[in-house]
Amino acid sequence: MYEIIENHILKNLDKAFIDKSDDVLVSYMIFLYQSWTSMSLNFELIRKNLPIKTNQGFRKISDCPIYLTKPYGGIYDLKNVLPSYKWVFIDDEYFKLSSSDGSRRTNKCM
């Protein structure tokens, strides 16, 4: 599994421009999330370079804060508390996708 992360995901994240489809980028994030407890990963590289699908397109945490919505365990409904602010929220697609065993995720972060 580490070879997949090292040779396919991290290698692509280290580039200035990531030429991958939206589905592949979302899959990277889900795969990393499902794998992070079983291995040591370069989280600094991931944090700086992994594009995360948001309500405003793909963004990197290193470029702007990305907030969690209620389905991900966000404490406040920021969109309704301060509606005039242009919040950047993680897209619900990550939450909606099925887990690796085919069951649907509910009430937990990703």
Per-chain topology:
Elements: H1 2-13, H2 22-35, H3 43-49, E1 52-54, E2 57-59, H4 78-81, H5 93-96
Antiparallel strand pairs: 1-2
Quick structural gist:
It is built from five helices and two strands. With 110 residues, it is mainly alpha-helical.
Description:
This protein has 5 helices and 2 strands. By secondary structure, the chain is mostly helical. The protein has a two-stranded antiparallel sheet with strand order 1-2. The longest helix has 14 residues.
Number of helices: 5
- Major sheet strand order: 1-2
Shape: globular
- Report the structural category: mainly alpha
Number of strands: 2
**Share in β-strands:** 5-15%
Q: Report the radius of gyration as a whole number of Å.
A: 15 Å
What descriptors fit this protein?
5 helices; mainly alpha; 110 residues
